[in-house]
Structures are given as C-alpha cells and as structure tokens.
Design goal:
Layout (H helix, E strand, L loop, with lengths): L3 E3 L6 E3 L2 E7 L7 E6 H7 L7 H21 L1
Antiparallel strand pairs: 1-2, 3-4
Bound molecules: zinc ion.
The site of zinc ion has 8 residues, from β4 and α1.
Length: about 70
C-alpha cells in the first residue's frame, strides 16, 4: 500500500492507497505512470481499456480494502 496522487479528472488529489493503473509511453523521456485510488479505479472499469496492470491494481486494492473493513468490524 502506498499513498500518492490520484490522477483521474474527477478526483485529482491525494489518496491513501493508490496503484499504477497504466503506463503512458512517451516518445522522449521516461514513460509516465498513471495512478488511481480504488474508487476511481472501480469507476474506470468499463470506461477505460483495462489492461493486465489495471486489473492487478484493482484486485490488490480490493484485497486491502477488504482487510481494512475486516479490522474495522
Ligand atoms: Zn481517485
């Protein structure tokens, strides 16, 4: 789990748990990692071509969210 910046336009802010959803290859310079938090990543499903990276990211965040819920209960 890592905190970071969620890049999606409806959020664009800090999130306690983000994962790299996709990597944008640029012609020059390093590839840009695009991170999203779980609510945004869920919202992206269906709107965005979910690659393996995104699927793995959502699965990892869902798992951590379930663990957090279990601890809260
Ligand atoms: Zn977000």
């Amino acid at each position: 789990m890592r905190a970071g910046h969620c890049w999606w336009r409806w959020h664009r802010g800090h999130a306690d748990d983000v994962e790299t959803i996709t990597v944008i290859e640029r012609g020059t310079g390093p590839a840009a990692e695009v991170c999203a938090c779980l609510p945004c990543a869920r919202r992206l499903a269906g709107q965005f071509p979910h690659g393996q990276l995104a699927k793995a990211a959502v699965a990892a965040m869902e798992k951590r969210a379930a663990v957090r819920e279990a601890h809260r209960a």
